[in-house]
């Protein structure tokens, strides 16, 4: 699947602060969709909402930078 955990981490890291609004919107949708899937599987998925300085991983989210 294209949207792997690695892609999520990249999308939510401070490395992509300069992405376009369209890119931000797309990733917000993808992350929210993955969160729904994880909840359905009784797992946890933390995801970022601001795409700035947040490292997101399955089951945990830690502030970086």
From TrEMBL:
<protein>
    <submittedName>
        <fullName>Uncharacterized protein</fullName>
    </submittedName>
</protein>
